[in-house]
Amino acid sequence: MSYPKKIYIKAIMFLVFVAIILILEIGLSMYFSLRDVTKYGVLLVFILGFACFPLNNKLVDWIYSLINPKIEREIKNAKNSKRGFEGEDSVNSWLEEIVDKEDIMKNVTLPDRNFDIDFLLVGSKGIVAIEVKNLTDPVRFEDDECFYEKDRRKISLSPEEDPRFKFKKYIYFLRKYLEDNDFGFVRIKKAIIFTNGKVSWDGNTGVYIIKDKEKLASYINNLEIDSALTPDICEKIKTLLRK
Prior knowledge:
There is one protein chain. The strands form 2 sheets. Strands 1-2-3-7-9 form a 5-stranded mixed β-sheet, sandwiched between helices. The protein has a 4-stranded mixed β-sheet with strand order 6-5-4-8, with no helix packed on it. β4 and β5 (145-150) form a beta hairpin. The protein contains 5 helices and 9 strands. It is an alpha/beta fold.
């Protein structure tokens, strides 16, 4: 979280607690005035209120220290989601220029699975599964290795953090689902698109890597026709996946 945002949040919290103290003071003052318990009652209430201001600062700092990690985590998640949506919107517009809209399926889910596949292209060239990444830091693949390049440093990622890992798992379940519904003969191609172009690779990545619209168009246009996928079969697969 940026420094100005931290000040902004703490200022709001401070004002909220000040408002609470003032409301309590006004309430107690009215109580003492109406009951006339002591002629010094109102004065004591205001003295108590001013004494609470230093405690107010400490209270704000303490509560902020508790909620700040969660706030930062939610802000980070929101930024990641925003980048993800922007990346998917870009790829969707690219695909609509390259293939028929009827062949594009977005955010495809499978029964009893808590994930979605960003795009599936279902047509005469088989099924093309596409994962979209819109990352802030450059990423590099070297065979089985994956790492970010940040501040001229390489930050290695574990296999589970590798963008290819989850994607391959998604495709495994997709393939199994198709096999269970008598479409095991359909070939599935895998591609990850990095919409910001901050990606490089060397060796066998196991997944086709794409960094811009031109490379995406070249990849799709160079795929061979799958004679097993007649228009009727394609429609049946689409109907199945829409469930």
